[in-house]
User: What shape does this take?
Amino acid sequence: MFTAFLIKYAEIGIKGRNRYLFEDALVHQIKFALKKCEGDFQIHKSQGRIYVETQGDFDFEETVEHLQHVFGISGICPVVYVEDEGFEKLCDRVIRYVAEVYPDRNRTFKVHARRARKDYPKESMEINADLGEVILKAYPEMRVDVHEPDILLNVEIREKIYIYSETIPGPGGMPVGTGGKAMLLLSGGIDSPVAGYMIAKRGVKIDAVYFHAPPYTSDRARQKVVDLARIVSRYTGPIYLHVINFTDIQLYIYEKCPHEELTIIMRRYMMRIAEHIAKETGCLGLITGESIGQVASQTMNSLIATNEVCELPVYRPLIGFDKQEIVEVSEKIGTFETSIQPFEDCCTIFVAKHPVTKPNVNIIRRHEHNLDEKIEELVRTALETDELIIVD
Ligand code: ATP
Ligand code: MG
Assistant: This one.
């Protein structure tokens, strides 16, 4: 029965000079999201609103589901639109609308009419009163409540007339593309996909880098990361995923550095390489799934050590989250089931039994000098063999 959607977006984005950027990005993201839906959709801006109109058959549930993945949308209102064929016809349609949408009509309501077109023969107040009366006559079990109605029946007089009353929640946030781009360090765990989701929600486009260590890490571990990127890309749009072969660097660190510092030094090289790719591809920051104290490499001392090798800001949106809170978001966004598949993203032989929890940066730096002979070349080779996968 619905023929269109009115897209509500957060107030914050529509203010000031950024308004057009915001709206255009939102329209772009909606188009992208609906490309994968059955149906013929027209998306247009009109007087500070965005409408998705449909032509012919479409799957309502599927369309809503896709719209619920578009950041920047705060609400999705299913709309019935009708041609303006006089007030009588409109009354009939409104009565039918109420019957269709509210099988249980033991509720209060209020009509809220708006004239976007001033040549309509009735004023808003008059439309409110007249339609209210018509509804009461048709459904005596309904009552008017102008302060807190159960049903707020919106009637917008435009070229066509739009009728809507329900709002389905959107994901909130800002449209991807309005906030620049950042490089996500994406592993196969629970945390990093959630971290990417959270930064993307603020309008940031996401690229990703995954470090694998074949044959110590399997093809299936790698596939799991691609799968995770695909799930996140439903929210973010296409993700450029850089797969970096980290094996030789890891082996070299293993050979030359104290084993209890392996994780920290490895992490420092991941950050350096990620930053290098980030700068080359126009990213304005790095994103990780770190959270204070979660493991030895995420104590505040360890974070000093991983942080100091980068110039770009490192965004750690999960820094103050408990594991359980992270799990809840991952379940909500649909990455959890994939994240818990048992393919290790990091080989256990490279993980020390007693990793340092309070690394001293000066000592770490000194030990990194053990790598001077070959590390530059190994990093260069890793970058040269960067394998780019476009995930969407
Ligand atoms: P996650 O659940 O994201 O894997 P984790 O709890 O396993 O996180 P660590 O393995 O300590 O934590 O990694 C911390 C962060 O470093 C990750 O959230 C991720 O951003 C990054 N990272 C770790 N391993 C890799 C990897 N192989 N490739 C890319 N990024 C990685
Ligand atoms: Mg991990």
